């Protein structure tokens, strides 16, 4: 029963925060460190849900915070990857639109070939970046998720002492 509550709390905190991280990444404002604060929020949400279920083991909080942050990192990576794939497909479709204006088939073929070669190299680099981010986002999320649960626990203990 305890594992079920830990996992349920971690999923709720992770999915909510993962979606928030993705939404903040869509803004035109540079919010580079905002994702770290949101990953901390995933730990806080998870710790709050665990506190409502009266789970008091510090080890449980640390595990659930890491799990919540990791889930948040994975969800934000997954949404980012889907956005990049959609963007690439739309870009490939936009490469075909100028071909209609060419009267000469050889010129059109050269244009398409050069465009696809350039886009292919960019696509390979993008796949490499997405592969690296597959490890970075969950690791970053897990780290800051643990920080969030620790901060929540310290705040609750300080509040109880007063």
Give a nutshell description of this structure.
This protein is 86% helix and 0% strand. With 162 residues, the chain is an all-alpha fold.
Explained architecture:
The protein has 162 residues and is mainly α. It has four helices and no strands. Helix content is 86%, strand content 0%. The longest helix is centred in the C-terminal third of the chain and has 57 residues, at 105-161.
Task: Give the tags.
single chain, 162 residues, mainly alpha, 4 helices, elongated
Alpha-carbon Rg, integer: 22 Å
Name the overall outline. Answer: elongated
In total, the number of strands is 0
- Going by helix content, strand content and strand pairing, the class is mainly alpha
Strand content: under 5%
Mean pLDDT: 81
Write the layout of secondary structure elements.
Elements: H1 2-25, H2 34-52, H3 58-96, H4 105-161
Helix pairs in contact: 1-2, 1-3, 2-3, 2-4, 3-4
């Amino acid at each position: 029963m305890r594992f079920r509550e830990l996992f349920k709390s971690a999923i709720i905190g992770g999915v909510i925060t993962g979606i928030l991280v993705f939404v903040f990444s869509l803004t035109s404002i540079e919010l580079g460190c905002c994702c770290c604060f949101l990953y901390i929020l995933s730990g806080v949400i998870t710790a709050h849900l665990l506190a409502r279920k009266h789970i008091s083991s510090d080890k449980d909080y640390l595990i659930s915070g890491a799990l919540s942050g990791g889930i948040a990192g994975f969800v934000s990576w997954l949404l980012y990857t889907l956005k990049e794939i959609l963007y690439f497909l739309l870009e490939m479709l936009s490469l075909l639109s100028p071909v209609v204006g060419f009267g000469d088939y050889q010129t059109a073929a050269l244009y398409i070939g050069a465009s696809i070669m350039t886009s292919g190299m960019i696509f390979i680099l993008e796949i490499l970046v997405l592969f690296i981010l597959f490890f970075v986002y969950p690791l970053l999320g897990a780290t800051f998720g643990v920080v969030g649960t620790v901060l929540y626990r310290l705040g609750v203990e300080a509040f109880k002492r007063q």
